[in-house]
Amino acid sequence: MITKLNNSNENIAEQIFTVFQNSYKIEAQLIGTDNFPPLLRSTKDIQNSTTQFYGFRENECLAAVIEIAIEDQLLEINSLTVDPSYFRKGIANKLISYVLNNIVFSKAMVETAVVNIPAINLYKKHGFVEFKRWTPAHGIKKLAMSIELAI
């Protein structure tokens, strides 16, 4: 079941933090780096965030989280994480579909590491296309993808 999460609640923020840590540790290994900025995010950072969080629960456990920001009909997917215990169950796909079908937007954007082929393929499946590549200061090569709705 997908629900909006109240990230300002300390208990919910801790659950989000746990999913982030478990998922991002695997992503850091996939990318081949020890210096992965998302792993530095604290529970307090999550609690104080002004973004929106949606979670997928299975058997009362928070299995996955999608974090979004929406401004002037621009939807930004800031993070999409699935706890490794719930990999390969289609949960990330369900979260993306939920956001794309339930949030009003004219353009959606997402960024990921160039080597994160599973994420890139998942976003392509939803119609996202690459429009930019660059290497930020932390050194992990990234790409940006977007999808625009015809108005």
UniProtKB/TrEMBL annotation:
It comes from the Bacteria. Residues 3-150 form the N-acetyltransferase domain. One of its GO terms (molecular function) is acyltransferase activity, transferring groups other than amino-acyl groups. The keyword Transferase applies. Pfam families: Acetyltransf_10. InterPro entries: Acyl_CoA_acyltransferase, GNAT_dom. The keyword Repressor does not apply. Keywords: Transferase. This is Acetyltransferase, GNAT family protein. It comes from Paraglaciecola arctica BSs20135.
